[in-house]
Amino acid sequence: MSVFSSPSFDEHEDVAFHYDGETGLKAIISLHSTVMGPALGGCRMWAYDDDAAALTDVLRLSRGMTFKNALADLPWGGGKSVIIGNAKTDKTPAMMREMGRFVDSFGGRYIVAEDVGTTPEDMAEIAKTTRNVRGVKSVGFDPSPGTAYGVFKGLEAAVGEALGASDLKGVRVAVQGLGHVGYDLARRLHAAGAVLTVTDIDAAALARAERELGATVVGLDAIYDADVDVYAPCALGATLNDDTIPRLKASIVAGAANNQLAETRHGDRLADRGILYAPDYVLNAGGVIHIYHEGPDFDRDATFAHIGRIGGTMRDIFRRAKDDGIPPHIAADRLAKDKLAAAKAGQRKANRPLAAE
Ligand code: NAD
After folding, report:
1. What one-character DSSP code corresponds to residue 133?
2. Family assignment (predicted)?
3. Cα(286) to centroid(ligand 1), Å
4. Model confidence at 191, in pLDDT bands (50, 70, 90)?
């Protein structure tokens, strides 16, 4: 298993492995960049096929967090951690406390939060051994409404760009997944005059959307064929793939789900078909922005004002895409890299030895 020569290695600052025989903890923490500040990123617990798969995942995810936090205007760099194991059968409170000690060994350069396979309750356990944790249950915040608001603002920007519309009246949106984020997004879209088509595996959520939002319900697979302007994936990752992209009638993709592109090349396929893609990690950053603001002095208005800036960031991305003749998913990465390079240059200047002044 190689680190520096791994295809997923992209000048990561630190990659640390930790094993604890007493609790069975096997974990990796990866700090991609601390240029913007301490690296914030979730802890994923997953039964990886092998150690190499865990390493690839943590490298890829921590790099993604650098870009996400930079474009969300947060004073945070990008990091991530993985615990190798089955979250349902292997996890214990003692293991989580040991994970907290591992996080703490970074002295504040890594801040952990929940991710797939970990919960706010786990973060509360981790908080017993480190202060460098966010999203702890006792704080009592749910970031999902913040995420939904950010998706709404980004979707509005995409509609302005692709359809030239200044509002969402009569805009047809297909929402896939009516969970914590999807339902709140659907509610906002309905209030703004959008016409909804929805799907979910949860019959109660569908009945509620029909009743409260006048939504049209379609089958799980039929959502890709819906005659709509916007496809909003809010359930699963990798729904933009070789099978679905040719079927889409929508001219915009804008939703909350993580990792919507099955592979990076699918971003190009969308552009080839003239479909405007609002990059997922920019659109769904409301959750991490919410986490940044959480705490005893939580100010909801200031938090939502910060999240609302996702609309402006999305417009910057579309402008950059046009200027450089590239698809938006590439433009977003370029904007983030420019921000990092500018911050790095500023730091170099500040660190210049006195003799060189
Ligand atoms: P959730 O689990 O509350 O909701 C997911 C919904 O999708 C559920 O209602 C579920 O029944 C439905 N679903 C599952 N399989 C489906 C299928 N095949 N077709 C249609 N619907 C299906 O999750 P959430 O918190 O609303 O998050 C939704 C997405 O947004 C996830 O991809 C998540 O990673 C991403 N995200 C969430 C947040 C947040 O703040 N919650 C932040 C960033 C990204």
Report:
1. B
2. Belongs to the Glu/Leu/Phe/Val dehydrogenases family.
3. 15
4. very high
Q: What pLDDT, in 10s, does the model give residues 85-122?
A: 999 999 999 999 999 999 999 999 999 999 999 998 99
**Residue spans per domain, the chain:** 10-67+76-127, 143-338
Q: What is the pLDDT of residue 357?
A: 46
Threshold 0.85, pTM exceeds: yes
Residue of minimum CA distance from atom 25 in ligand 1: 180
Topology of domain 10-67+76-127, CATH: Rossmann fold (3.40.50)
Ligand 1 close to Cβ of residue 257 (< 6 A): yes
The number of beta carbons lying within 10 Å of the beta carbon of residue 341 is 11
HSE, CB side, 13 Å, CA atoms: give it for residue 93: 5
Which helix or strand (DSSP H or E) is residue 45 part of? strand 39-46
Pocket test for ligand 1, best of 69, 134, 142, 147 (most atoms within 8 A of CB): 147
Which residue among 68, 80, 91, 153 is the active-site one? 80
Specify whether the CB–CB gap between 199 and 222 falls below 8 A: yes
Helix (H) or strand (E) holding 20: strand 14-20
Give 205's contacts (C-beta < 8 A, 6+ positions apart): 178, 179, 183
Tokens of 303: 């938090």
- Per the annotation, the verdict on 80 as an active-site residue is yes
Give every CB contact of residue 323 below 8 A, 6+ residues apart in sequence.
none
Going by C-beta distance under 8 Å and a sequence separation of 6 or more, which residues neighbour residue 338? none
For residue 49, the one-letter residue type is: D
Nearest CA to ligand 1 atom 40: 144
pLDDT at 143 over 80: yes
CA 355 to mean position of chain CA atoms: 44
Tokens of 162: 């692709």
Say whether 143-338 and 10-67+76-127 share the same fold.
yes
Instruction: Say if CB 46 and CB 117 are below 8 A apart.
Output: yes
For 201, what's the count of Cα atoms within 13 Å in the CB-facing half-sphere?
3
* Residue 199 beta carbon below 6 angstroms from any ligand 1 atom: yes
**Which pLDDT tens digit goes with each residue over 9-22?**
999 999 999 999 99
Name the band, by pLDDT with cuts 50, 70 and 90, for residue 340: very high
- Whole-number mean pLDDT of the chain? 95
